[in-house]
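Title: Prediction job returns without error message
Component: structure pipeline
Severity: low
Priority: P3
Assignee: unassigned

Description:
Job completed but the reporter wants confirmation the result is attached to the right record. Sequence as submitted:
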Amino acid sequence: MKEDKEEKQLEEISRKGGLTDYVDVHTVNFGEIKALFTDALRYKEKREFIKGVAQFALRAIPILLAPIWFPVWLISQILGDTRAIDKVIVPFLMLSHKDHHSELSVIIKRVMGVAEGDIKPFLGNDWFYDVFCTHGNLIGMIRQEHIINFANYISDVMKNKPDDEVVPKYWLDNEFRQWLNKNFEINLPMLK
């Protein structure tokens, strides 16, 4: 019972991006981190699958129903036109430096995103990236596809670690820095 409560607490902390700070102060085993990262990878796979199916449905349903029902064809044409308008309006709003457009800009970007099949607002917060948070938010500076590559790399590294071994302070940060040094040919110093 107590272990389940601690696991839930660790999961909640990591979803909020506080795992590295928690490991600095508390004793955490690699078994707990492995389980957490495995759950995060499963969550990401499921989320991406749902996102892909929803985006496919948003594009396929109007095409399949267009020959049968004229209003669906008309709506699909309007949504297609909004994509073209999006390519003109959004860059204009981004280049405009007036303060009064910020709320309008957010509304237009969200409406255009939904018209283009972006369903992220309906899926909720994607906590996958928060699990892999590092000190100084260094991980926030790279593209999401690189974070996924790092997540797969770190999962492979953890497979070789015994479950009862304690995670050292700055372990995730240093592994991330080593991965960056190796893959991007930079020379980041290790944390001590």
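Comment from assignee: result matches the submitted record. The mean pLDDT is 79.
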